[in-house]
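Predict fold of Diacylglyceryl transferase; 383 aa.
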Amino acid sequence: MFPTVSHFIEYLFGIQVPLPFNTFGVFVALAFIAGYWAFTQELKRKEALGLLHPVKRIITIGQPATTTELISNCVFGFLIGYKLVYALLNYRLFVSDAQTVLLSLKGNILGGLLFAGLFAYWDYKEKNKFKLAQPKKVEVTEHPYELMGNMIVWAAVWGFLGAKIFDNLEHWDTFIQDPIGGLLSFSGLTFYGGLICGGAAVLYIAKKNGIKPLHMLDVGGPGMMLAYSVGRIGCHMSGDGDWGIVNMNPKPFTWLPDWLWAYTYPNNVAMEGIPIPGCVGKFCNVLPLPVYPTPIYEVIVCFILFLILWRIRHQIKLPGMMFGIYLMMNGMERFFVELIRVNSKYHVAGISFTQAELISSLLFIGGLLLVAFSIKNKNTHTS
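Predicted 3D structure, encoded as tokens:
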């Protein structure tokens, strides 16, 4: 396994390059990039079909930097410099424990002041380049795909918060023992929490900009399936604990690689299992028994489902149907992988189930109802 990018580089090239990037985080970033691409393509396609429309806005140009803008740039610059300079001066600590460096109150005051001044000066000079003797109002056209930058930021922030909240609810016993650590930790993220909260933020921005919810949901279906597939690569490569139950069964096919059937996740970032003899460092554990590598199963299955959604999107004309199909696919895929995945279980009225099984079932039912709604109201839908 490759807990950090440095481990991956060492595996490929045999050299140690100390970098403060964990493998899971890199693939989360790649997942957002993949989703950004798919969302953008769909927004452009739907605008070309006349289903989405650009928005006219009136903006003022030629104004100098305001006091509020200068102050906000100072604050932002100070936060960047406060942490960045401290991280560079304590690079070994940053590489070994980036979470502590970023989330603690420790920082460099001089670095903060330096960057505060630079950010404010940069904003002042940039605004002065285009300053007019008399600022004027002009009309600009904003296309739906140009909203993606704003959407991706909101989706990332609210998605992370939702993923943390749902994960802590799923592991309540551990959370109440250390609530602060549970909230601030970079590990422990639940996909459905991120999907629900991040999706709600995107829908809010879309509605504010004249995009109907059903159209925005349809845009998101293929992109979210692709992003999930990419993100799960990070889960597998880092060994973040999202693996399956113990699998001691013989391989069904001799040509099947061992790591694709049963794997022990050596050097996993979750630091679970037993010590690896002779290993020195932070990530020196291996599972005592092989387990189903469920993240890689989801990578493969979800990428295939993305290809299906991407292929059929041209044939689906009814608003809401694409997202309904996505929900059904997503719910079904996750429900079945839960059957062989390690997870906390709830017990209600004699019924045992996981949080993901419950939510995936609700998503499948919700998708089915959305498809039925789209078909029933096909004559009343308007673009």
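The radius of gyration is 24 Å.
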